[in-house]
Amino acid sequence: MKFEKSTTMSTKRIIVSLLIYLLIPVIRLLLYRLTNNMTLSGMFALNVGAWLLVMYDWELFGLHWNRAKANLGDTILYTVIGMVFFFFWTLINATYLHGAMILPEQSVMHAYPIAIPAILFAFSFSLSIVINITFKCITDRFKVHAREGAMILLSGFLFGLIYTLTLPPITLTTILPTYLYNMITVTVLSYLYNQTHSFLPGMTALALVLLLWQIVFIL
Question: Are 109 and 219 in contact (CB under 8 A)?
Fold first, then answer.
């Protein structure tokens, strides 16, 4: 498998973006030790992490936003395709795989109704922003020569593993199904990016499905 450098991001920007990503579980853990509330800790960590990533990588975000606007038909089409896939894939995971997901606790949402909008946003849009920007940073420096399919699979294997080991609440019994769920999710995000040259369709599709999932099954 031959790799070629093909990047518009500096090494410094990639490293700092990854450090911001790794800061999220650290913030969540520190706040959890203070509050003993994983939902509120996760809400704060994800919202702050997503904000930092968007601000730091604003040019990257703007580039992908402009690409999505310039190809609005493909953007809408692949956002819908992504939503359909992510909904059924999440349903399969919840029903059969039982991989760990980053979701709020129903009891906390009912106990703190004033925080519900921030919680819903954190565990849908902020989480999707964090996944997609970090995934782009990790895979930005390489491409598989003349084999786009291999690059898509490599993205899923690599970032799916990194994400599984850093954010979801995994145990020894859930690590494999969690990795499978995340690997397929990231692989599809990579496919949507490959088809549209923007991470906005995948980001939007995943965020909307996670938002719908919270409203229907948790709230």
Answer: yes
